Amino acid sequence: MDSSTATMTVNSHLQNVQSLGYATGQMLRMLSSKSLSNSAASAYSTISTIPSLYASWWTNLLLSDPFHVAVEALLVVMCLVLLLLQRRSDWRFSQERKKGAPTEKEIDELLKDWKEFGRRPLGGNIERNIGARTENEAGALAGTGLVVEKIEGSYIYLHSGRQGLERGSLRIVGDHSPSKLPKAVLNFATFDYLATSSSAYLRGVAKSSLSVYGCGSCGPRGFYGTIDAHLEVEDEMSSFLQTEGAILYSDGASAVTSTVAAFAKRGDLLVVDEGVNESLLVGVNLSRANVRYFRHNDVRDLRRTLEKVAAQDAALKRKGTDQRRFIIVEGVYRNWGTFAPLQQISNLKEEFNYRLIVDDSHGIGVLGKTGRGSLEHAGLNPMVHCEILTFSIENALGSVGGMTVGSEEVVDHQRLSGAGYCFSASAPPFLSKVCVASVKRLKGAEPEIVDGSTKEDSEDELHVDNLRVFELKNELKKRGLSVSGRKADLQARLRHSFGSAPVSQKRESEVTADELSGPHLVETLHENIASLYGKLTDSSHEYANKLHDRLVITSNPESPLIYLRLSDAEAYGRTRAEQSEILDEVARHCLVEGEVAIVSTGGHVKKYLHLVPDPCLRIVANVCQSRSDAEMLVQALGNAVECVFEGNMIE
Q: Alpha-carbon distance 20 to 1, whole Å?
């Protein structure tokens, strides 16, 4: 387009606008000059000319600039379509919602079904037939569908209703009908190392605290979510672990994840054991730091990795202090049952000027003479040999959440930088009180009576068998008698004080969670671990001998997590899915025939891991397990291995 044509187009636009403006001005002048009697007629006459004027203006604009008109028309159409469709969709949604609403009869049927059958299993009914599963399905645990009713001591009690057993999704083809599934099984499956779920005292603490605090905290820690129970558990934990401070998170996994991400940022360096769990790896990924992995529990490979970094520093003339550098390990590896060589790792981090982050979720309350965890077991101290110690309080301490301990600088930094602390609702206060009671139990402190009741009964009315340990001690103190010893000793001493004879002798398998506290609590757990490991490796044992050459223990002999994988001879030529299938069947045979609950890990220990372990059977020790329980486990496991490997499997 030349300059003369452009000038003519602009002049045409100006004439159109001028004509429309002139007509509007004339209309306003006429309205103002006419009398009130003629104003209505004049206004009508003037208004009636507006459409023709607008049409004339639109026609001239279309002839002079059709592209401009097309764009404006498209915008107008889009506005109308959006407006009409929005109203239409709202109307249709309300009609569909009204149409899909259940009737009163349907509501009654749903309520009746809920009351009769309870909650349906999420996974549906699953046929457990080895030959019928595909390669993708094999080794994937879809769950048993059984509902745990309660845990008492070393036993798990399964739900006795129709959903849990009669209509459970664990369907065994053959002679094992759902009605024959056990109602109680030995618990070698949960991480309840100190049997906190069985402690009547801790239940009493939870109940009394619930009546004081209610259920939730109603906000994050920094926004009206901090309650005295949270501060108390932080003080109690820092005192127990002998650190300057502690910080409480509302979730065990987010505590570990948030701690790593709070200290390591883009440009920093993380040297990570390739066998760490998912929570640590999520924190590593969120930090966006540079990551180098070393072989699982291989101190030589760790040294090689640190030396390579030092060589790069020398080549680039870079100072080691130019970036923050951390070594990240687990005290007890959750997916392996192995211990980190913390003494050697601590020496290396001092030599190469790194900081050490340890996840001790399965060491706190378990390892060390007093239950202070992996550092105590290795003869080390937090803040001195480990700058950042993080762990879950959902395992040995029977609460909800996680904590990180260290110096005041470490703790205070997370109060503004820990995502799980700043943006998640704080832990329920009554569960924080349970954690406080659990820590005091580890310390061996005298428990408090939480229900507010007082005992003014006469000696003749006193039921010795129904008293808890701290109540027995209180009664013995009133009489000036010794309060040392186990519960059976306390009962006998109290009966003797007023001439009451024991009703029955307490058997070794009836040890309860409330009988143990202090160092004796941890010592008993260590004894149970040693007893369990000894029976599984006893070649002279009739049933343990059936495991030889078929299953191999890969975990540390002192670990509460005992992992058994297929031996090299049995694993040779089998895919991971096939190995998982075999171990799944062994675990199910133990549950159904042996009435022992163990876990097959092949189907769920896969995602988000840098190094995926071999499919294994996991056996977990706790303080309430007796020697007879260990004997029952070995017998059930031996029979299951023999049955599965000889082809007489559950079909």
A: 27
User: What is the pLDDT at residue 502?
Assistant: 38
Q: Report DSSP letters for 306-353, one per residue.
A: HHHHHHHHHHHT--GGGS-EEEEEESB-TTT-PBP-HHHHHHHHHHTT
d(CA 55, CA 380): 90
**DSSP H or E run through 297:** none
Residue type for position 62: L
CA-nearest of 327, 322, 285, 325 to 303 is 327
d(CA 162, CA 176): 16
What tokens does 183 get? 């109602």
- CA dist 275 and 330 (Å) reads 9
DSSP 67-132: HHHHHHHHHHHHHHHHHHHHHHHHHHHHHHHHHHSPPHHHHHHHHHHHHHH-SPPTT--EE--GGG
Average pLDDT, rounded, for the chain = 79
Burial state string for 124-156 with b = 16 or more CB within 10 A and e = fewer than 16? eebebeeeebeeeebbebeebbbbeeebbbbbb
- Per-residue pLDDT tens digits for 80-89: 887 776 555 4
pLDDT tens profile 593-632: 888 999 998 877 677 788 899 999 999 999 988 888 899 9
* Tokens 């901090």 sit on residue: 226
Q: For 586-600, give the DSSP string.
A: HHHHHHHTS-EE-EE
Spatial distance between the Cα atoms of 25 and 371, rounded to a whole number of angstroms: 93
pTM for the complete prediction?
A: 0.70
Q: How far apart are CA 171 and CA 638, in angstroms?
A: 23
Alpha helices in 322-462 (DSSP H): 342-351, 374-377, 408-417, 419-422, 429-443
Answer with the residue of higher pLDDT: 78 or 169. Answer: 78
The residue whose two tokens read 């490796």 is: 537
